What does this fold into?
Amino acid sequence: MKLRIAFLAALVALLAASASAGELVVSPDGLSPREAHARIRAAKVAGDRGAWTVRVKAGEYPFAEPLVFAPEDSGEPGAPVRWVGEHGAVFSGGRRIGGWRDAGGGVWEAPVPAGTDGRPAFFESLYVNGRRAVRAHLPREGYFHVGEWSQSELKDGSGAVTGYVQRATVREPGLEALAPLSPAALAAVKWRAFVKWTHESRSISAYDGKTGEITICGDAKSRIPNYRTWNGDAANCFQLENVAAGFAAPGEWLYDADALKVKYRPLPGEELGAVEAVAPVQQLVSLVRFEGDPDGGRFIHDVEFEGIGFTATRSDGVVAPNGAVNIYAYQAAAMSGATVWGEGLHRVRFGRCRFFNTENYAFRLEDGCVSNAIVSCEIVDAGAGGVWLGNGMGNLILMQNPSKRKAPNAWDAANCLPTERTVDTSSRAVRFNVVDDNLIRHCGRVAPDACGIILTHAADTKVTHNEIEDIFYTGISVGWTWGYWGSYAQRNEISFNRIVDIGQGLMADMGGVYTLGASFGTVVTNNVIMRVNSSSYGGWGMYNDEGSEGVRWENNLVVDTSTDYYHLHFGRSNEVVNCVLVGARGSVLTVSRREDHPQVAFRRNVIVWPKGPAFRGGNRLADGTAQAEFDGNLFWSEDGVTELNGLCRGTVADPKFVDAANGDYSLRPDSPALKLGFRPWDYSLSGRRSRAE
It folds into this structure.
């Protein structure tokens, strides 16, 4: 018997050894991540098909360049290449700043460290004791607004555009602080514009103290947007950052371009001898890059990362001569990079990884990414958003310039514009990915127009049980076409997510969940959306934007929106079913463009509306059907309004919540909504599963 047990034990050990063909240990004073990566690649190139595990010991691993994976670094089904980190294992693109001294007046300072080229490095983020320090800014409270605005192009002798110039005249106190700055100090000041759904961050080229005119320049690669409605719109504003006159409060920092010093005002309790300050001096946009070849059919597959931290990456954008990064990201921080970037990935998984103190998205997986998973990760203080899935241009290229249909990275028009329920089977398809049980919190401090999670040209994706909170733009965005162009963003599932505290009065034209273009078969269900607050219009809970089609919103709880619970710009065949909508501070349900076809149906919802109309928009079509249909809805106005308006149909009665004053929106057994067919669901299940463990 003992011999049999020993034999079985040996067999199990042998099988385990064959299942893990190789194991490497990475440590701060031993094998580096890059060396481990090179050893596995050499084995794979030599024909190894076994599993590999890289165990990463606790510690910080500074990166001077990204860890790049190619198809030859792939594992095999059932035999992946795994990178497993101990608690405290962190890959970093930053460098610790030393040499701090007390400069007096409540200010500490340290010399600016050298960059990779040996010259003093310019950087735009500083993390002190694990916290993003606030960059000195003007105005101290609120924002500046533009008076006059102009834009012009710079052209060479052949007429080709070589750059752009914008001039903004501002007649508000505070800007005079720019007048005495040296050219170096002025170039280190950042103009940060917040324009509805977009954000721009650029260096200042000139300032005229007499007229109040600020000049901003961009080169041909960095088009400056022409803000046609900039003047007088409350949704448009700007700040100046890295201004010495705005360096006033504890927790703030300043890059002194004249003295080449980093200056910091400590918070109460911080000690000079114990300060840990990190900056993205290495200028790395990504720490890990997956460079597959979708067009060539060469994919990276069966790679896993577990329990590793990632920090201190730099924004993507056009780098100015002084090292500042100039950004205009269009929408949803579309031009932002990512700490982990990839294309051509199959069966790649990130689990329990942590992303913190960065300047861009945590993940950006573009063309050719299929059956990948991002599970139980924590993304805290990412400078942009959490997860981007899908190509960033695609249909946008074709819409703006059809002549580019055969351009590199632009999709062929025959495959790019499905108007029905089309399946993308090309090598560039983005399908069957999972984003589940992740925390995305306190993001967008560098690119506030970023989304918590965005799917562009992505299909058959599950975005489930995530918690998204404390961001400035849309929580979850689906689709990336404007108008009835068709899209591959189909059959996506957005369910059981908790989306809280978005917009925060800074950005506009956004939603807790937002769709853009056709999304046939997409369901948005069992989500909780709370506290959506826009700068002006567009603080919507559920938002179907241009050409949204085939989206079903069901079993969603939407609480406290600055404008509508649900807004449809224009679209077709959308449904809002069995939702509870409470606490809007503006209108309630809106269709903003009238079209000659049914656009949305509202069925069996419980809707509490403030004083005013319960529904805006809609019309009766020629065949007698309604553009917006209503069936079995329960409406209730806390202001005592008893009549519905226009084409709006439903029963007006108290829904009888269990305890709405304390946030319990479940229904009592005698609620009239139940008689109308409303089906209760447990909204406490929304959010991370791991939160309840």
